[in-house]
Fold:
Amino acid sequence: MFAMKMFNTKKLWKAVSLGLCGVALTVMLAGCGADNSSSADKGVLKVGVTNFADTLEPTQNFFGWVVMRYGLGECLTKFDEKMNVQPWLAESWSISDDHMTWTFKIREGVKFSNGNPLTAEAVKASIERAFAKNNRAATFFKYKEIKAEGQVLTIVTEKPMPNMPGFLADPLFIIVDTSAEGSRDFAKEGPICTGPYMVESFVKEKAVMKKNPNYWDGEVPYDKVEIIFMGDASAKANALKAGDVDLVENITNVSDIQTLQADDSFTVDIASGVRCGFAWMNFNGVLGNETLRQAIQMAVDHDTICASNTIGGLYTAGYSVLPSTLAYGYENLENPYPYDPDAANKLLDDAGIVDTDGDGIRELDGQNINLRCVSYENRLLNDFSDAYALYLAEIGIGVTADYGSSDDQWSKLVAGQYDFNNNNWTTVGNGDPTEYMANWYSKAEANYCGYASDEYDALYEELLSEFDPEKRAELLQIGRAHV
Structure:
């Protein structure tokens, strides 16, 4: 549970997407409660969170994040604060000269919460289980063979995978004791893992975790952790102020954050992160017109939006698909479409994209330009859509808001039923942006906007097989500036 400043983009590589504003925040707050005491002082930590999973099965959907977040599951590897891959359940690894065989040394002395030892065979069974239960596993890597001998795990891949250790840090690959599956419902009772906590109970309203007596990595700080599910950010802030919880995360209401920051009873922790907020531009609709895309980029003042009372500094404007906090040459880039509404108007006028009937809306191919903006409330995405509508109206472009749930937003993205589609994604979820950058690779299923560039595709394909860190960083810098 932590506060995270997330970068969003003003322009996604040559107007692939309309950026939101640079760095967004996830906020963690802790307090002493209304009576100036804390349940944590009594060995029980009460945490208020937004629940997005109704199961503890780590291979279902993206719910492995919940299993890891609640202190249950661990992976072979993990990331440090700079997103460098670090050992976890694997104490070391190596790769063969042909870059096809990875060898992992599984840490000695680790036990699952039921007391069973962690062996390479147990790890092998867990990874194979993830592949069997979720097709997303094969999007990370495909293997020819997995072998286990003692504490040594060997994975032979179908092709070179430069980021293999980072892939295995994804919560989809949380290591579970598959031998316990026959006697335990992992979805309802929780999987058997190696983390500091194990499940005591899990219902719609609350998950209760208790200390794992077999935990391998030091003292477990609390006897019990009660994770209380709350519907929105204000509910979490109010529960913290009332002393009903000790800790909450992801408070995005500016007024709540300011109130808590002004009260010495609470600690507000905000830190830079690696999330990127952006709005897809659908190349298969009216935004297939390059001049229109360029004018839109110049018509929206992201710096002002981010500094507004509505956003409250929870985002910082940027003009790259990757955050400036990552070492991929952001400082060498120049915004090709700075805010300039006069230039935007002239660009459209010169292209003949004008308002012919005097209704205030420009036309393209004989039709009013009225852009469908799909969004949802989380992470202030709807607020950005509202701002788009105001700015674009100034240059004669209409925007119709289409607000719903995150599921609605996702289904319309995949179906191509949008002109703008607001998102907020982790850019280096596996310590490397390659998977994220597939969103603009023309041959990828994740290319939901229809962008295509032979030059970008060639750069991306080179990135897939490049192992040298400096060369990879160079390819990413060229690619982010090129698209």
Notes: Confidence is low (pLDDT under 50) at residues 1-26. The two ends are 35 Å apart (CA to CA). Residues 120-133 form the longest helix (14 residues). The longest strand covers residues 24-31.
